[in-house]
Each structure stands twice: as C-alpha cells, then as structure tokens.
Amino acid sequence: MTENRVPQVVFACVRNGGRSVASRVLTEHYAGGRVVALSAGTQPGEHIHPEVADVLEKIGLDTSRETPTLLTSPARRSRPATWPSPSAAARSTPICRG
User: Fold this and answer.
1) Helix, strand, coil percentages in the chain from 3-state DSSP, rounded to 5
2) Which fold has domain 8-79?
3) pLDDT score, position 94
4) Is the pTM of this model over 0.85?
5) What is the Cα–Cα distance from 15 to 8, expressed in whole angstroms?
6) Of 10, 15, 55, 60, whose Cβ has the fewest other Cβ atoms within 10 Å?
C-alpha cells in the first residue's frame, strides 16, 4: 500500500516576521492543500510586520493567526534541501526585513 504523504516546506529567516510568513501564507493558498508550509525564525520577533499583514489581507489572505515561531530541530529536519532567498543587498527594491 502506498502512503500518500503531503510534501512539507519550511520557510526560515531570522525574525519570522516578513518574507518567511508571506511565503508560507502564499504557498499554502496557491498549493490548495497539496503542500504543508511552515515558517519559523532563528530569533523570532514579537509580531509579523504590519506591512506584510496589510498586503496579504488586501489579496484576501487572513494573517490574524500568524505569529513568529522559533525554528526548532523538527522543522529543520523536515526539509531535504534549501534554496537561499536573495539578500537585501542584492535587491534594488525596498524590502520589509523579517
């Protein structure tokens, strides 16, 4: 019997207040249940950035239950590979630090 496993992806950053949260919410929305997305930070802040919440809510995505989460060993073990996000220095557009 083949086990149907839903793939899981972890988006991680330092504060878990911006990019990783937006990535998680957008991934789960567009994947429509085909992927479980988690987000966490190595030094989580107190809340997600209001700018991130505003943008996501403007496109109809609820962020009311989003809170920064500590990146723990189980989350790190759940991903087989990582793809680095471009650093702020590599971008020419303003970003919201997470």
Assistant:
1) 30, 15, 55
2) Rossmann fold (3.40.50)
3) 45
4) no
5) 21
6) 60
Nearest one of 86, 27, 29 to 60, comparing CA atoms: 29
5 contacts: CB under 8 Å, gap ≥ 6:
none
The Cα–Cα gap between 54 and 58 comes to 6
CB 53 within 8 A of CB 83: no
Q: Is 41:70 a contact under the CB 8 Å cutoff?
A: yes
Which sequence spans correspond to the domains of the chain?
8-79
- For residue 41, what pLDDT is reported? 94
Radius of gyration of the chain (CA): 14
User: Which residue, chain included where needed, has tokens 């220095």?
Assistant: 89
Query: How high is the mean pLDDT in each 10-residue block of the chain (98 residues)?
Result: 80 94 96 94 95 97 95 62 49 46
